[in-house]
Amino acid sequence: MDNKTLMASLVATGTLLASHSALALTLYETAQDKLTFSGRIAAGSSFVDDTHDDHDPTNAGSRVRLIHEHNFADGWSSIARAEWAFDPFFEDGTDNHYKRLLYAGVSNDDYGTILIGKQYSLWYNMVAYWTDWFWYNGATAQGSFNGASSDGGFDGNGRPDNAISYQNRFGDWTLGVLYQTSRNDVPRSVGYSGNLVDLERKYTAQGAAVYQPSDDWAFGLTYTHSEIDGELKSGSDRDENVDAGLLAARWTPGNWYFALTAGEYHNLVRDGEFEGVANSDGIVDKARGYEGVALYNVKQQVPGTVQLYTGFNRLEDRDSDARSAFYLAGAAWLLFDDNLILAVERKFDDSRQADDSHTGHDETDLLVRYDF
């Protein structure tokens, strides 16, 4: 993969990090410049066993984006991307929009790719997304979105804010580093059981490496250190530094796709991820996560592509028996150049409370999504 291809993959990240592309609307195009508008509209519904559930459809990650690309002389290119999530169904009376991504960068086949702004982390973009292939569920145990903010922006593992990253490819290796600057405007008084009222990030440092010896095999490693201080309700300060690592392997023979990730997380996971766990600061000292996916693409048998897939998510508290876990079986039908997705997933809950008692319910989830 040259760096023009790498830059193109960064553009595609928001759609699924998969092989299909959305029907982007070209607003402006010349030999050097291109401005496109794209996004998705998605709705999902869950049928939870043994509970009263109205099954009303809900927003499932709808978003819009603007992307500008420019080709310079001497092999350089640039990208600027703005992406916003929104609720097209106005479930709470508003469109509930918020910023997902806002970054700019340059790329060169020899010198690599540099991005500045709110972007996908190297943790996710290079390694963790390998197991984020379920259409409705998933990504609960890979460490990308388990931090202080739901998008992983504060701790740096999901979509970090105030970040600069660099990636380049050297033979079979792709290497990347990311640095996130300070932030001290994140109140933490709501959202989990601890008495921590405020967090201050001094910096985040992150690295990632992917080794791909063949078209079918790839191995990944990423590590994050985020220097964070916390303040308790008592007024005392507390060290809340995040240290997290993730290993991954991927095998993609023919129409098959297999991937596995395993992670170790210190001060990353909130105790609200588990039942029966309550820490003084609301943050789990040590957690471990595993995700796996196996998928088969059925092609040329029906219009479009049918995906049959299975896998698991397992996030464990290392200091108790608590875990958030499930097994899953699903099927999806991708139509109109893979831009219309109809999916059904059956999730089998395997979660446990801190005392090892069972918690949670099995459920069936439906998804309708259109990428444009």
If you had to describe this structure to a student in words, what would you say it looks like?
This protein has 372 residues and is mainly β. Helix content is 4%, strand content 53%. It has a 16-stranded antiparallel β-barrel with strand order 2-4-5-6-7-8-9-11-12-14-15-16-17-18-19-20.
Give the secondary structure arrangement, pairings included.
Elements: H1 3-12, E1 25-29, E2 33-48, E3 58-59, E4 63-71, E5 76-85, E6 98-108, E7 112-118, H2 122-127, E8 163-170, E9 173-180, E10 183-187, E11 196-211, E12 217-232, E13 237-239, E14 242-251, E15 256-266, E16 286-299, E17 305-317, E18 323-335, E19 340-349, E20 363-371
Antiparallel strand pairs: 1-2, 2-3, 2-4, 2-20, 4-5, 5-6, 6-7, 7-8, 8-9, 9-11, 10-11, 11-12, 12-13, 12-14, 14-15, 15-16, 16-17, 17-18, 18-19, 19-20
List keywords for this structure.
single chain, 372 residues, mainly beta, 16-stranded antiparallel β-barrel, 20 strands, globular
Outline:
The protein is mostly beta strands and 372 residues long. Helices cover 4% and strands 53% of the residues.
Q: Biggest sheet, open or closed, and with what strands and sense?
A: 16 strands, antiparallel, barrel
Distance between the amino and carboxyl termini: 26 Å
Overall pLDDT? 91
Tell me what portion of residues adopts beta-strand conformation. Answer: over 45%
Percent in helix: under 10%
Overall SS class: mainly beta
Number of E-type strands:
20
What does the radius of gyration come to?
Answer: 21 Å
| Uncertain stretches | 11-20
Give the assembly state of these chains. Answer: single chain
Q: What is the N-to-C succession of helices and strands? A: HEEEEEEEHEEEEEEEEEEEEE
